[in-house]
Design a protein that fits this description.
The protein has one domain. The chain is about 55% helix and about 5% strand. The chain is built from 4 helices and 2 strands.
């Protein structure tokens, strides 16, 4: 959950790097929260997802761009189908690259 909250704290930061753990934990919690809100909305007859998804659009794009940076590629690679998935699952560049230093694995 700390990675999800970290992404929300840096909701509009497109520079820097995001490791695999930060990206995939954010993705997992994003889907989990969307599922819960979808179920709650169905029970209450309220469309909660129409509020949640637009609110999470910029943080999702930002963490995706930072994940591409960790792989040593431009954030624009997010727009390339399938290649962005390959970059998202690949290991990031060790040490420093042109987008900054690699964060420690236990960073918050």
């Amino acid at each position: 959950m700390k990675y999800y909250l970290n992404v929300l704290q840096n909701y509009a930061v497109f520079n820097g790097r995001a490791g695999r753990a930060e990206f995939w934990y954010f993705f997992f919690y994003h889907l989990l929260i969307a599922f819960v809100l979808g179920r709650m909305g169905a029970i209450l007859s309220i469309d909660l997802l129409s509020i949640y998804y637009p609110a999470m659009l910029i943080p999702s794009i930002a963490v995706s761009a930072r994940r591409m940076h960790d792989a040593g590629k431009s954030g624009w690679c997010v727009l390339i189908p399938f290649y962005n998935i390959v970059l998202a699952v690949s290991e990031g560049t060790k040490g420093e690259n042109k987008y900054g230093n690699q964060l420690p694995t236990n960073a918050t």
